[in-house]
Amino acid sequence: MWTVYEFLDNRGAGVIQIWLKKERIQKKARVLLDQKIDLLRQCGPGLPPEMMSSGPIDGGHIYKLKVRGPVMLRPLLCKGPFLMDDEYTLLRGAIERNGVLPASDVSQAEANRQTLISAPGRRHAYGK
């Protein structure tokens, strides 16, 4: 089993939970997201490519989880960054529109990863 964490903003709130509320993501899409995260916990990097990008975006450290539904949710995450073979950290919520993921979301996810590396307490177990 892999552990899935969620990055915390500077007020200590989970960025994925804030994103879901801000974007007014409906219950059906939230259920699909939670199902994908449960699969991520079970399979780790063994998730099929249709569920998670097969490699990091732009050769960096950021992956996207693919949640298909009424809205194309693309939570951005990284392996680790501390226990690379045991954990993932959700870093930023994103929505893909017309097959395009906003570059600003990817750069913010990387910025959050860098913050986490320097401040390991800026995350908690997702869903807790």
Commentary on this structure:
The mean pLDDT is 93. Helices cover 32% and strands 16% of the residues. The two termini are 16 Å apart. It has 128 residues and is an alpha+beta fold. It has a five-stranded mixed β-sheet with strand order 2-3-4-1-5.
Number of strands: 5
Beta percentage is 15-25%
The low-confidence parts are none
Order of helices and strands: EHHEEEHE
How many DSSP helices?
3
Largest sheet, spatial ordering of strands: 2-3-4-1-5
Separation of the first and last Cα atoms: 16 Å
Q: Look at the structure and give the mean pLDDT.
A: 93
Major beta-sheet overview: 5 strands, mixed
Q: Give the quaternary arrangement of the chains.
A: single chain
Shape: globular
Percentage of residues in helical conformation? 25-40%
User: Radius of gyration from the CA trace?
Assistant: 13 Å
Structural class: alpha+beta
Task: Give a quick summary of the entry.
This protein is α+β, with helices and mostly antiparallel strands and 128 residues long.
Topology:
Elements: E1 3-7, H1 15-22, H2 27-43, E2 63-64, E3 76-79, E4 87-92, H3 103-118, E5 123-125
Parallel strand pairs: 1-4
Antiparallel strand pairs: 1-5, 2-3, 3-4
